[in-house]
Design goal:
The protein has eleven helices and 16 strands. The protein is an alpha+beta fold and about 300 residues long. The chain folds into three domains: about 70 residues, Arc Repressor Mutant, subunit A (Orthogonal Bundle); about 100 residues, 3-Layer(aba) Sandwich (D-Maltodextrin-Binding Protein, domain 2); about 100 residues, D-Maltodextrin-Binding Protein, domain 2 (3-Layer(aba) Sandwich). Strands 4-3-5-16-6 form a five-stranded mixed beta sheet, covered by helices on one side. Strands 7, 13, 14 and 15 form a four-stranded antiparallel beta sheet that branches. Strand 1 and strand 2 form a beta hairpin. It starts with a helix and ends with a helix.
Length: about 300
């Protein structure tokens, strides 16, 4: 394989993973016409079209699927081997793609990412907030952050944040108007602001610990949103009570009051997870070690 063929294969794999010419161009930081030209040259060399193009989407042909299946892993191993020895004595650099839920962002990453960027200015973070379950390899991410250590085969999970409580909170003015519930049954007389997971199209349920058994409290929300900041804002404006993880609430403790704390649900610790070979890539290893460092500070 000569240099031009290697470059064309890189472009092909980017198109296949991003699902479009423009997406591949954005990922590779080159012009879209250059991506199209490279693909055309590769198709001419192979003697068969690799994608079926329509006005709305681009799909792999049978030849394209075969080329993808036979080259993807090899290219990934080659890239990993190259990056593992590149600039060993220099400053870590390059892009690290992270996927995490909105809750994990506010709880884990938001308080520390600026420090990481100042400490490692040549590493560029590409952060995607997504409440859906994400396949790192298929979607091209380096690391993910989520609750629990259950991961797919070939992944490594390492704890970076302790177990946390999910609490119920309301503004002082709301509680002054409607009263403070003393037992879970009294929530039925209160207004609930619900959180909807867009990808699963479902509400995050109210679950409370009653006599060591987890119970789901069935309430109809007076308002629903899919953003944590909006959830907090609605509670501040005395519209009802909300569910929030305790570490996030600590940043808003002056505005919101905990209720029914003895019944709160405890969640599993938060983990960073990544493909086994990713830690060989210096920029990825640097981020993982930074997250573990911050976890050790929390544990002291």
């Amino acid at each position: 394989m000569n240099q031009s063929e290697y470059g064309q294969l890189v472009v092909f794999l980017a198109i296949a993973k991003e699902g479009s010419i423009t997406g591949a161009a954005r990922k590779l930081a080159i012009a879209a016409p250059s991506v199209s030209k490279s693909l055309k040259l590769l198709e001419q060399k192979i003697g068969a079209p690799l994608f079926i193009r329509t006005t709305r989407q681009i799909q792999l042909t049978e030849a394209g699927m075969q080329l993808l299946s036979q080259t993807d892993k090899a290219m990934e191993m080659l890239q990993t081997a190259f990056e593992s020895v590149q600039n060993k004595s220099g400053e870590p650099s390059g892009t690290v793609r992270i996927t995490l839920s909105q809750t994990a962002y506010y709880m884990v990453l938001q308080p520390i990412y600026a420090e990481f960027c100042h400490r490692y200015p040549k590493i560029h973070l590409d952060i995607s907030i997504d409440n859906a379950t994400v396949n790192l390899i298929e979607q091209g991410y380096d690391v993910g952050i989520r609750f629990g250590d259950s991961v797919e085969e070939g992944m490594v999970a390492r704890q970076i944040f302790p177990s946390v409580l999910e609490g119920l909170y309301a503004s002082p003015d709301y509680l002054a108007q409607f009263g403070t519930p003393k037992i879970p049954e009294e929530l039925s007389a209160h207004r609930w602001i619900g959180f909807r997971f867009i990808t699963a199209n479902r509400l995050h349920p109210i679950q409370l610990n009653i006599k060591d058994v987890l119970h789901t409290i069935d309430l109809k929300p007076m308002m629903i949103c899919n953003d944590t900041s909006m959830l907090i804002d609605a509670a501040r404006q005395n519209l009802g009570f909300i569910q929030l993880f305790e570490p996030i609430w600590q940043h808003h403790a002056r505005d919101l009051v905990p209720i029914l704390k003895s019944h709160w649900k405890r969640f599993a610790p938060t983990y960073v997870y990544y493909p086994q070979n990713s830690q060989k890539i210096r920029r990825v290893r640097t981020l993982i070690e930074f997250l573990l460092e911050k976890h050790n500070e929390l544990s002291v």
